[in-house]
Structures are given as structure tokens and as C-alpha cells.
Write a structure and sequence with these properties.
NUDIX_hydrolase_dom, hydrolase, single chain, 3 helices, Nucleoside Triphosphate Pyrophosphohydrolase, NUDIX_hydrolase_CS
Length: about 180
């Protein structure tokens, strides 16, 4: 794996000795026993690992209007942590089986916002919390296609109507450093 910047020969020797399933619902929770060398000596430890699949997320923007389209949804994690479950976020969703993450990205944008995309540019694939989640998220930039009429809310799937899309002017968003050039 010489092209993988995460690869480390010392860490590559780590291995999962056992996997104890504790819960299987929307998420799967396993307690895993891991073995690896620490300072040259073998060591074993356990970790709780949550698996709920991989995802795709899109920062949807309108270049002409200099706006981003976000969705506000109820998120249980934030509700438990802060007492307010409302969260303004980019459209995102789980990748279905072996589906191409770009297909997932376009579908989620359509379902959650009703807009079509002119362009979808891959930015990166990342593990947002790899210490305890198996989830990998494919991140994209998506330019709104002005020729694609926005679907009315009644035409969107029922699960989507729990969300509400919001247009944010770039001046109201916190500054976000961007790479000098994005792949085209």
C-alpha cells in the first residue's frame, strides 16, 4: 500500500482477534479484541466499533447566486448531546450496497432538496471518526443545474419531508479554506 498515506508497516501488523456482536439494529455494535505491538511488546485491547454503512455527502452550491443549499433535519445524536436535535447540514445519505457513491450523492441531493445537479466533483473520501466508526464518507461539490426545475415538496419521498432545505449566502457561512485547484 505505498500510495496510501495512512499506511504504516508497524500499524499494519495489528489484527482483530475476535469480534463480539452486541447489537444489530440501525447500527451494528461489536466489541473487538485487537492485538498489536506496542514498544516492541505484544499487547491486546478491546474497542467498541459501530458499523452503519458508508455514506456520501454533497456541498450543493449555486455559482451564479453565490449560495449553498443546506438541509435542516432532526439528528438524534445532537438531540441527546445538546437537547436540540435540529441540525443544518449538507445533503447526505447511506450508500446502498455496492452502489457507486456518486450515484448515492445525486440521489440524496434530489430526495432531500428537490434540485438536480449540473456537475458533481469528487473531493475526498474520509473516515470522520475512525476510532469507533467503520463509516467512510465520500465528499462532493455539486453545482445546481438551473435547467432542472426544483421538485415541489409534495413530490419528494415521505422520509425527506422531515427535512427542510435552506439557502445560505456564502457571506453568512463561516470561512472555509479551499484547495488551490479542485479536480475537474
Amino acid at each position: 500500500m505505498p500510495d496510501d498515506p495512512n499506511h504504516s508497516p508497524a500499524l499494519a501488523a495489528a489484527r482483530v482477534l475476535s469480534r463480539d456482536p452486541r447489537h444489530a439494529g440501525w447500527n451494528r455494535l461489536d466489541v473487538v479484541t485487537i492485538e498489536m505491538a506496542i514498544r516492541g511488546a505484544p499487547a491486546r485491547f478491546t474497542r467498541e466499533v459501530v458499523d452503519h454503512g458508508n455514506g456520501a455527502a454533497v456541498l450543493v452550491f449555486d455559482a451564479a447566486q453565490k449560495t449553498a443549499l443546506l438541509v435542516r433535519q432532526l439528528r438524534a445524536g445532537r438531540l441527546v448531546a445538546e437537547g436540540d436535535g435540529g441540525l443544518l447540514e449538507v445533503p447526505a445519505g447511506l450508500v446502498d450496497g455496492s452502489e457507486d457513491p456518486a450515484v448515492t450523492a445525486r440521489r440524496e441531493v434530489s430526495e432531500e432538496t428537490g434540485v438536480g445537479l449540473r456537475d458533481l466533483v469528487f473531493v475526498a473520501a474520509a473516515y470522520p471518526s475512525a476510532s469507533s466508526l467503520t463509516e467512510r464518507i465520500w465528499l462532493y461539490l455539486g453545482e445546481i443545474d438551473p435547467a432542472h426545475p426544483r421538485a415541489p415538496a409534495a413530490a419528494l419521498p415521505t422520509s425527506t419531508r422531515k427535512s427542510r432545505s435552506s439557502t445560505c449566502r456564502s457571506s453568512t457561512l463561516p470561512p472555509m479554506p479551499m484547495p488551490a485547484a479542485l479536480p475537474t
